[in-house]
């Protein structure tokens, strides 16, 4: 089921989980328990009556829908602040899914290198878990994840599971450790020397704060991965989700319609893209 692109569906919050000081995980159920029908990397517009609407990436995998989908929401504005005050059983408006997600069909048979930073793990988690659910259809799976502090790491239980798996190479770092942290310390690019890749058979996927992209792209290109095999999820302040308001326009590209997933080849040299 795809909800209306103009009229929100009233969806029920099934569960609300505090993940970090700023992020909560919301499990959402559409009317009748219908599937959202999304692809990894797409987003929905979340609305609260009398407050407004905001674009939120879908963090759950289509392969694990079970009539629900998940949104990892950082508390940063009016809509997200109000959403953080809501509890299971309450209702929110949902439009979507919108945008072009990750072309998983082009990734099958290849090695996949994920490089999310901070909240960038939320949209990439959808793709990571679908790849893991179809593990036999892919080559190596490499996950390099970085956050500012240990307290800001998302989905810590899943991170531990990925680290423990024999068929996943998962490396985690934080910019600054604390008394409890025994892992790697350094920005995400300090993880790249720990892995070697076959560039012609590797697809790379990254998402994170804008400042991170420049340095992660340097690492990926330095390993010889072609520009057409590097995928980025771009975050822009979207308002309508249907390419009408122009709020997310990047030159001739509309992030909400042409993206939010692009190859580096598509946006290389495009002013304001990175």
Describe the structure.
The chain is an alpha/beta fold and 274 residues long. The chain folds into 3 domains: 9-98, Translation factors (Elongation Factor Tu (Ef-tu), domain 3, Beta Barrel); 104-227, Rossmann fold (3-Layer(aba) Sandwich), CATH 3.40.50; 234-274, Dihydroorotate dehydrogenase B (pyrk subunit), domain 3 (Ribbon), CATH 2.10.240. 20% of the residues lie in helices and 30% in strands. The chain contains 7 helices and 15 strands. The protein has helices at 78-84, 104-107, 121-133, 156-164, 210-222, 255-258, 264-267, and strands at 9-18, 23-29, 43-48, 52-57, 68-74, 91-98, 111-116, 141-147, 169-174, 184-185, 202-207, 230-233, 249-250, 253-254, 261-263. The strands form 3 sheets. It has a 7-stranded mixed sheet, with helices on both faces. Strands 4-3-6-1-2-5 form a 6-stranded antiparallel sheet, with helices on one face. α3 (121-133) links the parallel β7 and β8. The longest helix is centred in the middle third of the chain and has 13 residues, at 121-133. It is globular, with a radius of gyration of 18 Å.
Task: Supply the helix-strand structural class.
Answer: alpha/beta
How does CATH name the architecture of the largest domain? 3-Layer(aba) Sandwich
**Describe the biggest sheet?**
7 strands, mixed
The top level CATH class name of the largest domain:
Alpha Beta
Rg, rounded, reads 18 Å
CATH superfamily label of the largest domain: Nucleotide-binding domain of ferredoxin-NADP reductase (FNR) module
Average pLDDT over all residues:
93
CATH topology of the largest domain: Rossmann fold
How many β-strands, per DSSP? 15
Helical element count?
A: 7
What overall geometry do the principal axes of the alpha carbons give? globular
């Amino acid at each position: 089921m795809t909800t209306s692109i103009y009229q929100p569906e009233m969806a029920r919050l099934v569960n609300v989980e505090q993940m970090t000081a700023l992020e909560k995980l919301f499990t959402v159920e559409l009317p009748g328990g219908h599937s959202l029908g999304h692809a990894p990397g797409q987003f929905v517009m979340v609305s609260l009556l009398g407050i407004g609407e905001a674009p939120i990436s879908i963090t759950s995998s289509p392969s694990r829908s079970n009539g629900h989908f998940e949104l990892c929401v950082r508390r940063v504005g009016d809509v997200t602040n109000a959403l953080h005050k809501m509890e299971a059983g309450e209702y929110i408006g949902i439009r979507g899914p919108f945008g072009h997600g990750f072309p998983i069909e082009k990734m099958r048979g290849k090695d996949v290198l994920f490089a999310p930073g901070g909240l960038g793990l939320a949209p990439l988690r959808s793709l990571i878990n679908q790849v893991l659910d179809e593990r036999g259809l892919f080559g190596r799976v490499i996950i390099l994840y970085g956050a500012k502090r240990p307290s800001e790491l998302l989905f810590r239980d899943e991170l531990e599971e990925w680290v423990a798996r024999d068929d996943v190479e998962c490396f985690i770092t934080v910019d600054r450790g604390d008394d409890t942290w025994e892992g790697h310390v350094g920005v995400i690019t300090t993880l790249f020397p720990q892995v070697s890749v076959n560039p012609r058979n590797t697809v790379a996927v990254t998402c994170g704060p804008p400042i991170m992209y420049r340095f992660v792209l340097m690492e990926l290109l330095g390993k010889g991965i072609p520009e057409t095999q590097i995928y980025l999820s771009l975050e822009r302040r979207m308002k309508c989700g249907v390419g009408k308001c122009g709020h997310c326009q990047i030159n001739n590209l509309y992030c909400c319609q042409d993206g939010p997933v692009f190859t580096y080849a598509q946006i290389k040299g495009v002013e304001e893209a990175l």
